Structures are given as C-alpha cells and as structure tokens.
Amino acid sequence: MNTRNTRLRRTAIALASSAIAVSLAGCGVVDGIGGSDSKASPTKGDDIKVGLLLPEKANTRYEKFDYPIINEQVKKLTNGKGEVIHLNAEQSASKQNAQLQQLVDDKVDVLLVDAVDSKAIASGVRKAKAAGIPVIAYDRLAEGPIDAYISFDNELVGEVQGKELLKALGTNAATKQIVMMNGAPTDPNAAQFKAGAMSVLDGKVEIAQKYDTKDWDPAQAKSNMEKAISAIGLSNVAGVYSANDGLAGGVIDAMKTMGVNKVPPVTGQDAELDAVQRILLGEQYMSVYKSYPQEATAAAEMAVAKVQGRGIEFDALTRDKVDSPTAQKIPAQLVPVVALTKDNIKETVLQDNIYRLSEICTAKYKSACAAAGLK
Fold it and tell me: At what angle do helices 245-257 and 218-232 cross, to 10 degrees?
C-alpha cells in the first residue's frame, strides 16, 4: 500500500509542478523566462548554451522528439538567443564520456544528460560540476553530483505493464507461464521498470524464464525468446512481459518464426510507430505512452531556469525527490504515463501529434484502423 501511495503522490506532484510553473509565469509572480518582456538574471542572459547528450538512435524518439522539442523550447524561452548543442552517443558509454568532456571544454552553461551507462557517466558529471556547469539527468538517473532529474515515473511504468498483462491473462493467471524480457542492466530505468512490474506480477503468475537484454537490443531479445520457447514450449507461453517496444518486436518475431498461431499478450513501452501498428493488428497487446513533449518541454524549462537563477520556477518544476546510489534527495519531476491500447490511440499519440493518422493507417493497416474507429 505504501508503494502505491508513493506512486500516486509522485504522479500528483508531477502534474502539480507543471501547473504551478505555468501559473507563476502567467500571473507575473515570477519574472518568467522567455517572452519579449522577460528579464534575464544579472549573471546570465538569454544567450545561453545548453548541452544535450542523448544515448542512442535505435529508439527513434530521441532524434525525432526529444532533441527538436528541447531545441524549440530553449529558443522560445530565450527570445531565440539560446543554443542547444546536441550529441548522440549511439549506445557507447565511452563515446558519451568524450562528448561530455567536449561540452565542458566548449563551456556550455548547463548539461542535460541522458546516460548510456549511469555509473560510467559519473566521472564526467563530476568534471562538469568542477567546471561550474550544472547537470540535469534527463530520462535516466545518472550517478554523480547531479542538480536535478526529470523522467517518467519508471516504477509506475512497470506497474502499468504488469497490470495490463495480468488483465490480458484473465482468470487463473497463477496457473499460467510467462516470459520476462527486461531491459539493459546498465540502464537504471530498466531496473525500475522491472521492480514495478514485479510488484504486480510476483506471486500472481509463473515467470518461467527471464532475461536482461544487453543494450536493449531487439535481436538479443529475439534470440532469448527462442531459448525460452525451446525451454518451456511455444504452447506454454501464455504471455510476455517485454520492457519496451523494441524488445517486443524481437519477441514477436521469435514467436512467428517458431510457428505461433496467435501471438499471446506481449507488453511494450514507448508507443513506437511499429508497436502502435502491431497493437492495431492484435500482435502486441499494449504499450506505455509517455508524453515526450511534456518531458522535453519541462527539461528545457528546468535547464533555462537553472542557468538564469530562477529559483522559484526551478523549485516548482522539481517538487519531488529521488535518490541515486551516489546522491540523496535529488530535486526531480516525474511525468505521468498511460497504458496505450487500440482503444485510446486517438486520445494519446494522435492527439499529441506524435504521429499523423496517415502514418499509422497505411495500406497494410487500413482495415485494422477502421475497426478501431481511426478514420
């Protein structure tokens, strides 16, 4: 019960934080960032440089949503004078550390860091802090002396996935076998997804096989799923907890390759286009929709507020607290999430302009879209 109350409190705080920030700026209580009438702090004006370190390109969200939204929002908040220097590590922790050093040498004013490896980045975070550059952990909780953290409520993500899977399994779930396909062991989010899922699934269903997936690699997920099927038998797989949509794709490919007649319920996360289309076809049961526009916009607001010394706004955006292995009570904002099924595609990814209807409902998916009321 305490865990659930904590999750509800985090969601309420995340929603309240955004509302407070908007209210303060709109009412003129705070000398708001951006806009023609805004006044920059005496120490730093609108000509700020934000360093943005992204972890990979395999998940299309980072280049398609996160960077463009952060870039646009920083410009909006700084009268077009702010600059975002964005680098992608392409899943290499050593490359990301070199990129961080490059941004420190370039004397950026603030760093938004989405870590490939939360532990490996810690030394770079310490170097940035020594150079007087604040560091905000973005999407993944990096180790080291970070100033703030913004992400989705990752344990809640796992809980949502677990509950949806149990619902799909129906009655007598305890007698059924599932496979658990977790994310990368170097990603702290993966551990939180797993913990949230286990808080729901443990004791409610038999987890026959479970795997961690290096680098979130769908090919490895496919290989591991083939091993699981060989171990327990295809007909005995009642469902699959898959930590994200990329892994779900690998899992589903494995089951198709091995001759499944009907794919059992498979979870996911990230609302990737392929996953939305698989959901429409009934091949993937669900995904978790996370509002990247909300996360990215708030991250840009936090970065600009931090650099320009706008403490009231920064505090309003970071009303939660989280702990990492190296720091306690880190100011944070945890953005809420929602289960994505074929019943709410219109109210989520379409309403937020993540995808256009024409992108989802291509020729192959026309009939499935019509059946789901997407016209």
Answer: 50
